[in-house]
Amino acid sequence: MFIAIVGAMDTEISRSYELLENPKIQEFQGFKYIIGDKGEHKVVVTKSGIGKVNMAIATTNLINHFDVDLIINTGIAGSVNTEINSICIATKLMYHDLIIDSFDVHVKDPVYTNEKLIEHAKKHLKDITYGTFLTGDQFVTSIDMLHGVDTNDVVAVDMESMALAVTAKRFNKDFLIIRSISDNLSLSDANKNEFSAADISLTQAFSFISSL
User: Fold this and answer.
1) What is the pLDDT of residues 112-126, one digit of tens each?
2) Dist CA 106 CA 89 (whole Å)
């Protein structure tokens, strides 16, 4: 299987080079890729940049240039009903900043993770929290910034994962979002816990790949 790992920031993928076997660096259309092996699988790792547009571009490049089978998004996220350093996997993803009430459109519809991937994760990964992820192009510092979205089943909020999910779905590719909580909707918390949370998330992503 050819698997992609993508994070928004350097800290979210920085250890990939040492976690891969036979790693090599390749550049294409302004993106740098780390390509190597993990057991029986070929793996490509890249940084997208922060935000939905950057993630959509990076995901499209991974699909068109490498024809990967599975795309894993790793990194940090803000807390909604979760504790700092909790490891969260998205079962459902939605935008929180896409407000369209005047037209009969479906851009607010959620995207769901492949149930077989969720069941595999539940079988092989420990201490994971599963639930809904919310994505928007802003660092959320208050529940009020979520525009009244029902947060009962929400576990995390970030700036990229829904964009990856929508893009992967459009190209009929599987995806999995694995993120670790860095903050309780606090920028100072995020700065303090960024490295530890990012490392936890990346480690889980590689554990998932090893279990396939």
Assistant:
1) 999 999 999 999 999
2) 24
In the set 12, 158, 189, 194, the catalytic residue is 12
Q: What are 11-56's pLDDT values in tens digits?
A: 999 999 999 999 999 998 889 999 999 999 999 999 999 999 999 9
Long-range contacts of 185-191 (CB under 8 A, 24+ apart): 185/78, 185/79, 185/80, 185/140, 185/141, 185/142, 185/143, 185/157, 186/141, 187/139, 187/141, 189/84, 190/76, 190/78, 190/139
- Evaluate whether 136 touches 53 at the Cβ level (below 8 Å): no
Residue 114 sits in a domain whose CATH number is 3.40.50.1580
Residue 12 annotated among the catalytic residues of the structure: yes
Q: How far is CA 36 from CA 10, 39, 169, in A?
A: 18, 10, 25
Does position 76 have pLDDT exceeding 50, yes or no? yes
CA end-to-end span of the chain? 9
Look up the domain containing 54 and give its range: 2-211
DSSP, res 146: G
Per the residue annotation, which of 158, 160, 183, 189 is the catalytic one?
A: 183
State yes or no: is 115 an active-site residue: no
- Please state the domain count of the chain: 1
Looking at the DSSP bridge assignments, the partners of residue 70 are 3, 174
Whats the size of the chain, residue-wise?
A: 212
State the amino acid at position 48 in one-letter form.
Answer: S
pTM of the model: 0.94
